[in-house]
Structure formats: C-alpha cells, structure tokens
Amino acid sequence: GNTLLCKTTFYNADEVGKNHINNIVGQKTFAENLLVHDVCFLNEDTLCVLVENGFLLYHLTEVPELICEKMLQETMVEAICVDGGLYVVKEGADKQRTLCFFDKKGNEKTILKEIPEYESIAATAEEIVFFSPQNVSIYRRNGSKKYSAAFEQSLEAVFPAGNNRYFLVDRGKVQTIKLSNHTRKAEKEQ
User: Fold this and answer.
1) C-alpha to C-alpha distance for 105 and 31, rounded to whole angstroms
2) Which of 5, 17, 70, 125 has the lowest CB atom count within 10 Å?
3) Does residue 172 come out as left (phi exceeding 0), alpha (psi in the -120 to 50 range) or beta?
4) Using CA atoms, how far apart are residues 58 and 70, in angstroms rounded to an integer?
C-alpha cells in the first residue's frame, strides 16, 4: 500500500536463539511511516536505535531488554553515539539549538544551551568538536569550553584522536596536532 512499516529484529545464533523461530529473539515494529535511520552500540551490551525524532536503548544479553524509549518534543538535528551514551543536538520551535547528553540508561543532561555555528560534529565520550572550514570549537562533556580557534586556511574536517590529540584534515593531507598544557592554561585564563 502507501504506508511504510519499519522493524528492528534481534537474532541470537547461540543455544537461546535455536529455541526461537529463525533465531529471532526480539522484534520491534514502529509506528506507520516512522523510519529507523541508524543503529549503533554505546558499549558491548547497549544498543541504540535512532528514529526520526528520538531513540530506543536496549540491553543485549540473550534476548534484548528495552531500557528506554525517548521521543523528543524538539527536533533532533544530530545524534552522535559514543562509548556510554549519545550526544543529541535539539532545535526548539524558536530555532534555538541545544546540546544534550543521554547516558546508557536514557538519563538526559543539558551540556550547552547555545552551540556554536558548525558544519559537522565529531565526538568521543569525553568531548565534542564543532567544526566549520575555518573554525573549530571543542567542549568537554560537562559543557566547559576546552579550545576554540579560527584558522587562516580552510580545513576539510577535525576529529578527536584521544589524549588531547586531533586529526586536522586538509586537502590531500592529514595532520595530527596535540593541545599542550600551555594551550589549556591560556584557555582557562580567558
């Protein structure tokens, strides 16, 4: 017909799954015309299913257990899964964007009530990078600004690499930079 039905199906290839038809140990059918657009792991046993304006978290053991189902009142602009949770950029009716972090139990914490202009986002469990070709802003998960800079040359992307290191992607080359203690001290003084 003219409707679209979307399902997520959980299989188990072990002994538990053999006791189920086609090894299917769980299934979720979503509301009409609601699409699942990504599935990612938050850790070894927590799965996040991203839907149009929300997400579902499952604890995966032998059969999936639903931890929570969150449908947001605001528009979900971005969702980035990281170890132990997910960052969500939400946009209200007033077009104001906020950054929140949801832990692996679905608990929400607002990180930034106003976020910088950006073209792309990259994140780790501890920080998030807002990137545009000539600007980068890095925030810790607690909402404090770690670093911000404008570049003379136009960059393609910036990604966190861990241990205060970042990959700067430019046309034809990738550089690794490291923020020094001096850089962090200068940022604290501002």
Assistant:
1) 23
2) 5
3) left
4) 12
Burial class (CB in 10 A: 0-12, 13-18, 19+), 125: middle
* Pairing verdict, β 145-150 and 135-140: antiparallel
Single-letter amino acid code for the residue at 54: G
Q: Where are the beta strands (DSSP E) in 52-164?
A: 54-60, 64-71, 75-82, 85-91, 97-103, 108-112, 120-123, 127-132, 135-140, 145-150, 157-162
- Asked if residues 39 and 12 have their Cβ atoms less than 8 Å apart, the reply is no
Burial letters 69-108, b for 16+ CB under 10 A, else e: eeebebebebbbbbeebbbbbbeeeeeebbbbbbebebee
Integer Cα distance of 16 and 160 in angstroms: 39
Instruction: List per-residue pLDDT tens for the chain, 190 residues long.
Output: 677 888 899 999 888 888 888 999 999 998 887 889 899 999 999 999 999 889 999 999 889 999 999 999 999 999 999 999 999 999 999 999 999 999 999 999 999 999 988 999 999 999 999 999 889 999 999 999 999 988 888 888 888 988 889 988 888 889 888 888 644 443 433 3
Helices (H), the chain: 15-18, 181-189
